[in-house]
Amino acid sequence: MKKLIILAGITALITIISCNQTKDTNTVNLETGWKFKTGDDPGFASPAFNDTSWGTIDPKTIWEDQGNKGYNGFAWYRCRVLIRSSMKNQNTASDSLQIFLGKIDDCDQVFLNGELIGENGRNIPSGSTRDDAFTKETGRWNLDRRYCLAPADPRIHWDQENTVAVRCFDQGGAGGMFGKTFAIRMTGLQDHLKFDMDSAAYIFSGDTMLSKGYSIINTTGTDQIKGEVLTEVIQCDNGVRLFSERSFIDLAPHVKINKLVAFKKAKSAPAILHVTFTEAVTNNKVDAESEVPYCLTPETSLEPRINGASVFGVRPWSPFQFKVAATGQPPLKYSATDLPEGLTINPENGIITGSLKKKAEYIVKLTVENQLGYAERDLKIVVGDVISLTPPMGWNSWNCWGLSVSDKKVRQSADAFVSTGLINHGWSYVNIDDGWEDTHDKNGNILTNYKFPNMPGLCGYVHSLGLKIGIYSSPGPKTCGGYEGSYGFEAKDAMNYASWGIDYLKYDWCSYGNIAPDPNPEQLKKPYKEMRHALRKTNRDIHYSLCQYGMGDVWTWGAEVDGNSWRTTGDIEDTWESLSAIGFSQGRCSEFSAPGRWNDPDMLVIGWVGWGPALHYTRLTPNEQYTHISLWCLLASPLLIGCDLEQLDPFTLNLITNDEVIAIDQDPLGKQAIPLRKSDDYEVWARELEDGNKALGLFNKTGKTMYVHVDMSDMKLTGKYEMRDLWKQTDLGKVRGHFEMKVMPHGARLIRLSRQN
Ligand code: GLA
């Protein structure tokens, strides 16, 4: 079935096609229709209050992003909805009315028809009076707001207009309603029968066989739930059923059953695992689904190929280390002609070392050979003031191990760069985040804690593999994890890092907020300038990564304090909300990105992550992960893998070893993509490349597959262009004027447009 929607006024044409998500009915939608006002007045709760002069607001996005930048304190949201009594009759367990209000940053009181019904995520009984103690409570901002009322509760006005009024209090930082699920509905089967589709990851055996476990749980304390489970795997492009099974279940209260699905599928074919439960007595249905991973990157060729950065910056006299990244059937033999004096290449592993004394530029011809042939490529070496001429690529311990990182885990990760072949695609930094520090000794030297018994030894080991190593600290007295920071010890810390052999420093604001609680622009720069001076006094190139979550529009002055990259946002999470909010907001800093000066939208949330000892498989769908990597490459972002490298599954490895995709991130021109088209449903981003061609990202922000139309005049492109699908590494033919492409739900297409003469 095809349904065409023509968006008036813009040239995007969106076609909704199959493989879409199904959604429940019987719900009052609260995603729209909200009025908003900053300030506070008890009268704002009243249904009679006239809010026509108030502004409108989208409850899915914090108020800062909707014209209220920097606002902290009270604000109100109001919305009027009809609640039909017919909702009560259509459910099995109609025991309460639920009001879902996403998340609220930081605190909230919710009124229905003028009466308080909930506070900071707790239900409030009828007749309760309000006070302001709720504004003092912390840690509620990330809690899903769901308020429940018995159907007989007089605060509900069945079959009439109801006024929902939300009094918010923001203690600082982001404020107001955000997140997902803004709705009113009765409790029903979907609240009592839960599917766990996420705890078990897909298991690959061979190229075509996949299996996955999932479970169904009866969460009611009292009722037996009986019915039929239909489990199906459907291939998206042709609707073919790859797996289909019907079974009957009879679940006692609190019982969970585990199911296993095993099926064959072409490696690159997208598919959906769909589970539907139909309750025996009522015929009511609940369902859940999960995207099956599909691998787009073709097999690596056995013939030699040189990958990774084609330009490398180094400062005069600094130790030089560059590993030629190359794939092909081993053994590979590496050589370089026109290497400047002072450098040598190891023919066995392609590691170039030495040092260069004068500012200069050199073009070196790299050659990699094996039994099947050879590959050549130029490497430009720039001896000057700026390092990191392409965005750093590597791994960081935080998104997987959090504070439980140790020497052993870092060594194992470094080994995995080699055993998985990541090192052959340009991945090179092994970065230790927070959790390695002890105290400063009486001489002011920073000590490592018991988990890192020999930091110089660890650095030496990582270097011996052809990799680089990074570390983490804070300009404040304490790091975000409560470990010792660099405050007052900047010079000594920098000297110690350099003497150990550190190549990368992530410098995280954290407790510096106590030293400069309300920083002006100069105070924001001060600690970063200080560490910059300390780093420059060492005779070592240390990538300087500023981490202060984008405060004071750091992208406008990060280069001034000699940052090589700067975090533009708060911490990323492995959810679509977090990924899309961060990724698609990066257009505001595009113009500030340049070789050696990179915007950093935070690390990759793929594979097994967890921010601590217990890991889980990323909650991003495969399509969302294609969006993640495509967008981050277009953004010329540092690419830091955040998962356990020892548990790299075939999908994740395939996702991060596509050399044509990585080449976009590493393009030597260093120009970050800009958004050409933005709407609620889709985005189109374009990046200029060094060879004069363009990389283009087409992103689908909806839960349904769509066709996204690209008008090449948006990029001022006239004439004929060759189009290449970078994920599949295949040519798509010539194009002129405009074209459209199918894009999966929350997915992406990444293409290259090359001018044809
Ligand atoms: C902050 C940073 C994270 C991580 C932690 C470590 O939250 O943004 O990336 O470094 O601190 O404590």
Record the SSE blueprint:
Blueprint: E1 3-6, E2 13-16, E3 28-29, E4 34-38, E5 55-57, E6 73-82, H1 86-89, E7 97-105, E8 107-112, E9 115-119, E10 122-123, E11 144-149, E12 161-170, E13 176-186, H2 189-192, E14 193-196, E15 203-205, E16 209-218, E17 225-235, E18 241-251, E19 256-264, E20 271-279, E21 285-292, E22 305-307, E23 311-314, E24 320-323, E25 325-327, E26 333-337, E27 343-345, E28 351-354, E29 360-370, E30 373-383, E31 393-396, H3 398-401, H4 407-419, E32 429-431, E33 437-440, E34 446-448, H5 455-464, E35 468-473, H6 490-500, E36 504-508, H7 512-515, H8 521-537, E37 543-547, E38 565-567, H9 576-583, E39 598-600, E40 608-609, E41 616-617, H10 622-634, E42 639-641, H11 650-655, H12 659-665, E43 674-678, E44 682-688, E45 694-700, E46 706-711, E47 720-725, E48 730-736, E49 738-743, E50 748-755
Parallel strand pairs: 23-30, 31-32, 31-42, 32-35, 35-36, 36-37, 37-38, 38-39
Antiparallel strand pairs: 1-2, 3-13, 4-5, 4-6, 6-12, 7-11, 7-13, 8-9, 8-12, 9-10, 14-16, 15-16, 16-19, 17-18, 17-20, 20-21, 22-25, 24-28, 26-29, 27-28, 29-30, 33-34, 40-41, 43-44, 44-45, 45-50, 46-49, 47-48, 47-50
Helix pairs in contact: 4-5, 6-8, 9-10, 10-12
Alpha-D-galactopyranose (GLA) is lined by residues 398, 433-434, 472, 479-481, 508, 547, 571.
